[in-house]
């Protein structure tokens, strides 16, 4: 049986390109508004995958945005609102559905404190969209699968674009990255085509692990966090997402022969990743390295899945993300589970949706 999730994963390149293209004018307008309002701080919040979409873009925001930036889970808004939210703050709430209580509440509270509010959402008439001053709509189209894939990519690309828009005029590197981002859909597409075949080849050997660790650095740290959400939501496999170094300094001790470690590797973290791969072997675990063909870790890793040759660590998360999505899809169906509607869907939605609201398709 073919599930919707795999089609959605294949739509990634198109919907990322469309989202960036359709919002370009609004992004430039927003750039001016933030200047006029003399904004000093930006607070980005979301829940679950919408939070990890922001986490993937976070390193880029930290190096380019001229505004002090805080990225938090919407449920943690209460800890920061007194010191971060005022009339010089832009609050960006991210929610594909636009129907998550905490993200909407963060927006309402921000408004009462005079902050400027922006929604990144896929649904134009959602509660979140209704409560924001500016809406940046993601263009993933319909996504009925409960564990989201293409909309995580569109939200992340949108936040990356904003991070670059918030750069100072003289920031030449930001200009270059805008160009790279504009054509990143081809790298995403190439990656999906390569990785899909490679995952299918190794699937019989990797589907029985009961514990998974996913790790990466820079934008791939956010991808590792997203992998933990996705793999648990869909395949029901206990998964921990970490920064590569954070797994290496201690938690690596929990690895056993039941553990699969998925390491997202770039040239910047190659040495660290090789050290970790060696440790995984010493502790009896099994590893998958996700990296471009230009990086050869076949001596250290049990399996390798390739991404396209992409060399920007701040944008790379968008290129590595579909590999995690494909891995989730195949591990889920291999277990005989339905990736579009995991068993907890109804129960979770009852507590996630505001009263009287429905999950958009
Ligand atoms: O982007 P949204 O619609 O706010 O959803 C956030 C989270 O809610 C879910 O849709 C359900 O938990 C997750 O898949 C997602 O991570």
Structure description:
With 361 residues, the protein is an alpha/beta fold. The chain has 2 domains: 4-184, 3-Layer(aba) Sandwich (Rossmann fold); 187-334, Rossmann fold, CATH 3.40.50. It has helices at residues 4-36, 49-64, 77-84, 101-112, 127-131, 150-165, 172-182, 184-206, 219-235, 244-248, 270-282, 317-334, 345-352; strands spanning 41-46, 68-73, 89-94, 116-121, 134-137, 211-216, 238-243, 259-264, 286-292, 303-307. Strand 8, helix 11 and strand 9 (286-292) form a beta-alpha-beta unit. The longest helix is centred in the N-terminal third of the chain and has 33 residues, at 4-36. It is globular. The model has no long low-confidence stretch (mean pLDDT 96). It binds 6-O-phosphono-beta-D-fructofuranose. 6-O-phosphono-beta-D-fructofuranose binds next to helix 2, helix 9 and helix 13. It holds the Pfam family SIS. Residues 29-175, 202-342 form the SIS domain. Its EC number is 2.6.1.16. It is an enzyme of class 2 (transferase).
The assigned structural class equals alpha/beta
Span between termini = 21 Å
User: What would you call the quaternary organization?
Assistant: single chain
User: How many beta-strand elements?
Assistant: 10
Q: Which stretches are low in confidence, meaning pLDDT under 50 for 5 or more residues running?
A: none
Main β-sheet description: 5 strands, parallel
> Strand share of the residues?
15-25%
Element-level helix/strand string: HEHEHEHEHEHHHEHEHEHEEHH
Taken from the alpha-carbon principal axes, the silhouette is globular
Q: Helicity level, as a percent range?
A: 40-55%
Q: Identify the CATH class of the largest domain.
A: Alpha Beta
| Radius of gyration over all CA atoms, rounded | 20 Å
How many structural domains are formed by the residues?
2
Number of continuous helical runs: 13
């Amino acid at each position: 049986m073919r599930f919707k999730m795999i089609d959605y994963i294949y739509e990634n390149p198109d919907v990322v390109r469309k989202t960036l293209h359709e919002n370009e004018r609004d992004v430039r307008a927003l750039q001016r508004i933030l200047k006029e309002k003399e904004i000093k701080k930006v607070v980005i919040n979301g829940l679950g995958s919408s939070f990890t979409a922001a986490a993937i873009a976070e390193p880029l925001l930290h190096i380019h945005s001229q505004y002090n930036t805080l990225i938090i889970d919407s449920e943690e808004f209460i800890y920061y609102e007194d010191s971060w939210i005022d009339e010089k703050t832009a609050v960006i709430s991210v929610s594909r559905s636009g129907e998550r209580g905490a993200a909407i509440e963060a927006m309402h509270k921000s408004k009462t404190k005079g902050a400027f509010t922006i929604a990144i959402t896929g649904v134009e008439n959602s509660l979140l969209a209704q409560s924001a001053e500016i809406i940046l709509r993601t263009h993933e189209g319909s996504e009925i699968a409960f564990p989201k894939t293409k909309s995580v990519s569109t939200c992340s690309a949108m936040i990356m674009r904003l991070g670059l828009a918030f750069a100072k005029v003289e920031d030449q590197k930001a200009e270059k990255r805008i160009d790279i981002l504009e054509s990143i859909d081809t790298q995403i597409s190439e990656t999906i085509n390569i990785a899909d075949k490679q995952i299918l080849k190794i699937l019989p050997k990797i589907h029985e692990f009961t514990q998974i660790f996913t790790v990466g650095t820079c934008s791939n740290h956010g991808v590792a966090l997203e992998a933990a959400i996705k793999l648990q939501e869909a395949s029901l496999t206990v998964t921990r997402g970490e920064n590569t170094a954070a797994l290496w300094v201690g938690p690596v001790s929990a690895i056993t022969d039941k553990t699969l470690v998925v390491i997202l590797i770039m040239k910047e973290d190659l040495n660290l990743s090789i050290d970790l791969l060696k440790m995984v072997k010493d502790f009896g675990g099994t590893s998958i390295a996700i990296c471009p063909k230009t990086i050869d870790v076949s001596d250290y890793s049990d399996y390798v899945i390739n991404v396209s040759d992409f060399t920007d660590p701040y944008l790379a998360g968008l290129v590595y993300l579909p590999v995690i999505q494909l891995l989730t899809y195949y591990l889920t169906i291999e277990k005989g589970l339905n990736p579009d509607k995991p068993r907890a869907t109804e129960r979770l939605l009852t507590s996630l949706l505001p009263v009287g609201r429905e999950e958009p398709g």
